[in-house]
Amino acid sequence: MADTAFELLLPSLQRASAKTLWVADENLIGTRLMANPAVTVIANRYDLFTQLKQHDWNARFSDFDFSEFADDSIDCLIYRVSKEKPVVHHVINQALRILKPGGRLLLAGDKGEGVKTYIDKAKKLFAGACDAQKASGDVWLAELTCPEAPGSKLLDDKQYTTLRPEAKDQNFEYWSKPGVYGWNKIDKGSAYLIEHLDAFLMTMPEPPRNMLDLGCGYGYLSLNASHLDIPITATDNNAAAIAACERNFDRYPINGKVVTADCADGISGKFDLILCNPPFHAGFGVEGDLTDRFLQAAHDRLSNVGVACFVTNLHIPLERKARDLFHQVEVIASSSNFKLTRLTHRM
């Protein structure tokens, strides 16, 4: 499905001839564009980065790291706003720093995503130099001109670039940051899985020899499975999640590694235990391609004697889709909010 807000920015991307930076977020997955040599792209999702590289864009994969760009060095920054407020504030703040005086910041988004508020804040920060218009429906486009000096203090980005302790329980202190889904809490679905992990392992014919944490986030499942004393591979598609998980692996004696990958793409070998709390939440959808891809990844990486456990909201139709890939599909526990689904290749 086409993104109306991004389509408003397309002409500027395609016509750009001066030094331009495109900040590309998750809502642009599936975009197919001819590369423009005047444009550098920053993407915080590995699948989008890979897609852009395949189409010859000058792309960077990072947690929206602008450190390579000097002050007053960019003529135009193009940004379809993200879903998380601290991310948007971080990008707008950095735009003020790296844009040349007279340079342009182009913002687009939907009213339901808070774009009007972002435009108003950016207008104050950019000393009022703003041309904003409602383009269609509730979608807005704004062009702001970078001033010689900012008009107000920087927007609150919750110290976007800083990893720090954000959650803890009786076993671990979890370091995280904005940009990671559920960055400042323990996800209730993941906690539900760990609560039932020992009982789940008792259903296995023999102890697992290794584990894959599929969509690891800041590493909660991996840390809480580390008592199994088996090699753990944690993987995620998001740059912020990779940074946070690596920090948590460094802080505790985890026998494992963190790998940047899109749904385990490129990870070799088979795993006896796969744990997954997939991102079936706002902004990612609950059916269709994403469900299929996570299940396919579990199918491809699960050993013949292995077991995969998915924790999902009750309304996710995981079992129906899983039956096309696994011999055994069983809901082994459920609450008022979550269910644990057990998947194996054997009958």
Report what the structure shows.
The chain is α/β, with parallel strands linked by helices and 347 residues long. It has helices spanning 4-15, 46-54, 85-98, 115-125, 188-195, 197-201, 220-225, 239-251, 289-301, 318-322, and strands spanning 20-24, 39-43, 58-61, 74-80, 99-110, 130-136, 139-145, 164-168, 173-176, 211-214, 232-236, 256-260, 271-276, 302-313, 328-334, 338-344. The protein has two domains: 4-145, Vaccinia Virus protein VP39 (Rossmann fold, 3-Layer(aba) Sandwich); 164-344, Rossmann fold. The two termini are 39 Å apart.
List the keywords:
347 residues; Rossmann fold; 2 domains; 7-stranded mixed β-sheet; 10 helices; 28% helix
What proportion strand? 25-35%
Mean pLDDT score, rounded? 92
Radius of gyration over C-alpha positions, nearest whole angstrom: 22 Å
- What's the domain count? 2
* CATH class bucket of the largest domain: Alpha Beta
Strand order of the largest sheet: 3-2-1-4-5-7-6
Whole-Å distance between the termini? 39 Å
Query: What's the helical proportion of residues?
Result: 25-40%
Low-confidence stretches: 281-287
Q: How many helices?
A: 10
Question: How would you briefly describe this protein structure?
Answer:
The protein is about 30% helix and about 30% strand. By secondary structure, it is of the alpha/beta class.
Blueprint of the fold:
Elements: H1 4-15, E1 20-24, E2 39-43, H2 46-54, E3 58-61, E4 74-80, H3 85-98, E5 99-110, H4 115-125, E6 130-136, E7 139-145, E8 164-168, E9 173-176, H5 188-195, H6 197-201, E10 211-214, H7 220-225, E11 232-236, H8 239-251, E12 256-260, E13 271-276, H9 289-301, E14 302-313, H10 318-322, E15 328-334, E16 338-344
Parallel strand pairs: 1-2, 1-4, 2-3, 4-5, 10-11, 10-13, 11-12, 13-14
Antiparallel strand pairs: 5-7, 6-7, 8-9, 14-16, 15-16
